[in-house]
Design a protein that fits this description.
about 55% helix; single chain
């Protein structure tokens, strides 16, 4: 079906169903390969959700959480499906924390954070 169909939507649905069967058969690597196919934006959220299911079943919890977060970011905010994906994400510990970038290193002529500036030279008398 995937190779023979000329309709992209049918191919994407067939890939999604194939990946679900591979998940049921515990063929996690195959399911992930199936889901790695380029997909239309209309299918991106459901592909990411199923990818989260596969990763969770394979014991790759941080990756599953990331996949569920991607799914949530691609779902319409008013979609009822969001609650379902959010429940799966919460069951795995919730969203991954956002890691802030470290502060930039001070320039050569700036003091490092937490270090007092060097004392300035005293002013010349009479000035």
């Amino acid at each position: 079906m995937i190779e023979r169909s000329s309709e992209e939507e049918l191919k994407e649905i067939a890939r999604l169903r194939l990946a679900a069967v591979e998940l049921d058969e515990k063929q996690y690597d195959e399911a992930l390969k199936t889901l790695d196919a380029k997909t239309d934006d209309a299918f991106a959220a459901i592909y990411a959700d199923l990818k989260g299911d596969v990763l969770a079943a394979a014991g790759k919890v941080p990756d599953a959480r990331t996949a569920y977060q991607v799914a949530l970011s691609k779902l319409d905010p008013k979609s009822g499906y969001r609650t379902y994906v959010q429940a799966k994400l919460d069951a795995l510990g919730g969203p991954l924390p956002i890691v802030a970038a470290p502060p930039p290193a001070p320039a050569a002529n700036e003091p490092a954070a937490g270090n007092p500036p060097p004392p300035s030279a005293p002013a010349a008398p009479g000035k």
